[in-house]
Structures are given as C-alpha cells and as structure tokens.
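From the thread on structure requests for the teaching lab: each student submitted one protein with a one-line request. Submission from student K.M.:

"Model protein N-terminal methyltransferase from Cyclopterus lumpus, tokens only."
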Amino acid sequence: MGDIAEGETSFYSNAVDYWREVPPTVDGMLGGYGSISNIDINGSKAFLQKFLGEGEGKTGTECALDCGAGIGRITKRLLLPLFKTVDLVDVTQEFLDKAKTYLGEEGKRVGKYLCSGLQDLVPESGRYNVIWIQWVIGHLTDDHLVDFLQRCQKALRPNGLIIIKDNVSYEGVIPDEVDSSICRDLEIVHSLVGRAGLSILHEEQQTNFPKEIYQVHTLALR
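Reply posted by the TA:
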C-alpha cells in the first residue's frame, strides 16, 4: 500500500507544481489553446441552457460552483451571465487572486474563492444549482473522483446538476507526465459516475475543436 500512497501524493503535488508555473492567462488555462475558448463557451452555454429555467424539473439559477476555475474563464463567460452567484475553487491561489481582477465588475457576484484540491473539497450542502467540473477530473484518482462526485451530489439544490466537461481518450487511461494528470475513455468515466450513484441525463461531444486534441464530452449528472 505504501507505494500507492506515495504515488498518489506525488500525483497531486506534481500537479500543484505544474500549475504554479503556468501564467494566469486564458492561454495558460487552456494549455496554449486560448483560441478555442469561444467555441468551448458557446458549446457549454447551449448544453446548459437545455436545463435552466422555471417549471417542472428545471434547474434554478441561484448559485453555481466552478471547479478547477483557474482565473475564472468559465465563471466570467458562462456562469456569471447565467447565475446570480458563483463560487470558484482552484488549487492555485495565484489564479484565484488573478480572477478578482479578471472578472471585473461582475466579480462582485462571486460568493466564495476556495483554494483547495477537489480531492479535499467538501462543497457546502444544498448550496448549488449547478456544479461545473471542466478539464480537471484528470487530476483526481478514480476513488477520489467517485468520492468527490458523491460530495457534490449532497451539495446540490433540488433539480441541481453536476456537469463534467472533459477530454476522453479512445481507449483506456492515458497518463500525462507534464501536468500530472490522466485522460480516461468514456466507458471508464461512465463506470465511475455509476459508482458514485449518479445517472447521466444527457451527454454530448463538443464539436469544432482542433483535430489534434482529445475529443471532449460533456455529461449532465444527477
């Protein structure tokens, strides 16, 4: 067991070290692919708006949580325009500090800036309509991802949603030594969601991304 614990510790600490060196810019957040930000946000908005609104089974718009928020790219362009309050969580304090200026005037509607790895985060019970988890599940081990999703479920309001948007590999698990993360195939993601006791309400592949990057899928869970 010692090896696993040791491997797990360095898996997390190496990721912290990697992000500490990344510039707090949109391009830094997107690993040099800042140009895809618009396509990404527009795809996310179309996906999310299927669920939001008034009436039976619809998801409210009081409060959202941006997981692995970085400098707040998604908060600024996707979540603040749709929700009254948004909380940000990121493992890198420098990014959260930068978010305070990057978000501008609308940043006044940020509820909390939480500096934490998701493996340690316990989101406030019953607070969120939407928990948005994008490009960050690769930084969690399988067990930690399952546990985190279960904690997220407890943090949802009635009809709340957990949204995962992330890279998927064609087959199996592909490690990335550079930022100390992994990329899982869709079948593995599905099985971990199932282990967490969640169901997939809707799933889509993001279109119009550059051919050379991984496919990106968005899943709505409850």
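TA comment: The two ends are 33 Å apart (CA to CA). Helices lie at 2-20, 26-29, 37-49, 73-79, 93-102, 142-154, 186-195.
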